[in-house]
Amino acid sequence: MPDRRPYIAGNWKMHKTNAEARAFVEELLGEIDGIDGVDVGLCVPYTSLAAVVEAAEGSDLIVCAQNMHQADSGAYTGEVSAPMLTELGVRGVVLGHSERREYYNETDRALQEKVPAALAAGLQPILCVGETEEEREADETQRKLRHQVQEALDKLSADQLVDVVIAYEPIWAIGTGLVATPEQAQEAIAFIRALVGDRSKDAAERVRVQYGGSVKPDNAAEILSQSDVDGALVGGASLAPKDLAQIVAAAAR
Fold it and tell me: What is the mean pLDDT of residues 34-55?
């Protein structure tokens, strides 16, 4: 089995001014100094991207946007394109987060365009997939994941699959305090890996699949110890440098 490097990405959502963002990065870099073997990213609001890129200069911190439009330019008021992000030094982008799907009608068809557009621009996509509580109770988790993964990755070549990070986020566990058990996380993420394997066995072994859903310092180690879990997309706990650093340390172990 290839040695997949763990990836911990903190998603700030709509939090932090530029001043707060700079102070956070300075504190976080101090907290994670000396921790090796883990990729660490911050997914920050558009307004703070330049400040965070500047604050992270000289470090290995990966700065990501929280969304992007699939077109390079055009009459899309309020949107931001991949070239605008890369010009700032942004290296990744979250696509298809459940909040974008629920509140802003993000569709799988749009993601089918966004994922290859991100890769073409040199951005690493973090593709979010996951089921609602009702879908899980109806035993439809695999149906939902199959649809989301196959649709979003449909226009990628087999060689491109490994360049995508997939984040399994059970919607019922985002911001609710509920957490998938380690066994539930492992089962869903192994299924996602098998879906990638339908396209390319090599990519399935190498692609990184994160868990997201109320990850905190006190539950991170158990979740991250699962064989198919390659990191975490962290929400609320990513707003405190010490908490995020503890999760990074758990991934390193």
Answer: 98
For the cut 60, the answer to whether the pLDDT of residue 239 exceeds it is yes
Residue in 97, 106, 131, 135 annotated catalytic: 97
d(CA 121, CA 131): 29
pLDDT in tens, 45-93: 999 999 999 999 999 999 999 999 999 999 999 999 999 999 999 999 9
213: pLDDT strictly greater than 90: no
Q: Which of 106, 131, 135, 169 is catalytic?
A: 169
Using a 10 angstrom Cβ sphere, with 0-12 exposed, 13-18 middle and 19 or more buried, the burial of residue 242 is exposed
Q: What is the Cα–Cα distance from 197 to 209, expressed in whole angstroms?
A: 13
Whole-model pTM: value is 0.96
Active site residue 169: yes
Tokens read off for 78: 């309020």
* Domains of the chain: residue spans and CATH: 7-252 (3.20.20.70)
Active-site annotation holds for 97: yes
Q: Output the CA torsion sign for 143, 125, 167, 173.
A: negative
